[in-house]
Amino acid sequence: MLQVNNVSLKFDKRTLFSDVNLKFINGNCYGIIGANGAGKSTFLKLLTGEIDTTTGDVTVSKGERISILKQDHYEYDEMRVLDVVIMGNDRLYKIMMEKEELYSHIEFSEEDGYKLAELEAEFLDMDGWNAENDAAILLTNLGVNDKYFDKNMRDIPVKLRIKVMLASALFGNPDILLLDEPTNSLDLDAINWLEEFLINYSNTVIVVSHDRHFLNKVCTHIVDIDYGKMKMYIGNYDFWYQSSELLLKQMKDANKKKEEKIKELQDFIARFSANASKSKQATSRKKMLEKIELDEIVPSSRKYPYIDFKITKNIGKEVLKVDKLSKEIDGRKILNKISFTILRGDKIAVLSSNDLAKTTLFDILAGVTNCDEGEIVFGKTIETSYLPQDNSSYFDTNKTIIEWLSQFYRVDDETHLRSFLGRMLFSGEDVFKKVSVLSGGEKARCMLSKLMLEEPNFLILDEPTNHLDLESITSLNKGLERFQGELILTSRDHELNQTVCNRIIEILDDGSIIDRRLSFDEYYEER
């Protein structure tokens, strides 16, 4: 069991959270949510002792092991993949290293013998002889091919290194498992496997994630960081969201009734306070008025941008025809004579285990790169906007946010742009920040602002939720559901795929495609 007792955390003059009292027990999965900067990742570091509390303490039941998903895979460049996974159980890995060092002694002392006997007994008790096999099973389940197991970390693809770090966190059945954004960069198959793993996990799991479907699938409790406090709710993310919205409505409704009562009393006092026959009643009502207090509804630290894609040109019958499109990169044909037609009303999710294939297709559709053969033909009424996965080239400039955005707006109207940016959470002096120094989330909101101002009727979106917080993802999801045009997107966000798209195109390993007019869940179940 993990317990947080009267904990507060301050940095300089800012209090991140205070008076935190929480208990995390076996068999439950706790999702930590809150606005960007609320302290979600910091809270996980506090639980491991990486940083100290300002007040209060964190206690762990005796003998229980905490494991955390480490983010810096470059730290292990010179290590063998299997060893990195086993190292997730620090004590087991140290025993293995000590054994190896002792067995390497040319002269073997009696003391060495006693030490080895102790190590071998502990190694056996920890099921050490199955360590490599257990590590291999985890890696395989996450989609890492066995040809990489004996390679050094620096010699395998970056997206596989992330899976190795996740396998390391999961290894050895830790008593308390801390996961910070575990689905980042995972493919859909790996995410599905991880969901099932955590659903069946019998120990304690604490997870930070922006993936709403993931939080709904695995969490039994939600811990919300807001108002500088932390509050635990029973249920998954959707239950928390609906409950918090209902609670806020009830508080507002209660205040409205109190405001009506206050108005009624004020009117009575104004009418009759000068009337001798009614003065007693007026005095009584004045006392009642003084006792009524409005419940303070503290504004949440969460901010939701307003994302809404308007179209100015009606869409004709023809949208897009792709005919026998092929593209080869580094000697491998990643798109192989693919053909499909997009019709009015289509919202397409593109899936593939090959990220390069998806991005290349989108670059070709957007005119960023050329195909080797085949053709694409857009309908005459179609106006496209592209949201690339890598937006760095757009921000290699010394412009301010408002200067940058004005490039994509047809009218010279700073007042409108400032109002627009305010709805996208760039208020006041924020609009004069240089775009070159913006965070990933701020740049993503700038790119979405650009798309909205262009008013396209066909959207091409490559991982549109990257760098966005839960609030921005929710707003984007709703905006795309309302969008009256057509779109083609690729996203690891299950909820976005399911609620927005009505057609699936999967690019296979040989560069061909499967094209099905199904929802995301229907397609995945069939697949």
Model description:
With 527 residues, this protein is an alpha/beta fold. The protein is built from 17 helices and 18 strands. The protein has helices at 40-48, 81-86, 90-103, 110-125, 131-141, 158-170, 188-199, 212-218, 237-272, 279-291, 355-365, 401-406, 414-423, 440-454, 470-482, 494-500, 520-526; strands at 2-11, 14-24, 29-34, 55-60, 66-68, 176-180, 204-208, 221-226, 229-234, 318-329, 332-343, 347-351, 373-378, 384-387, 458-462, 486-490, 503-507, 513-516. The protein has a six-stranded mixed sheet with strand order 5-6-7-3-8-9, sandwiched between helices. A six-stranded mixed sheet has the order 14-15-16-12-17-18, sandwiched between helices. Strand 1 (2-11) and strand 2 (14-24) form a beta hairpin. Helix 3 packs antiparallel against helix 4 (110-125). The protein is flat.
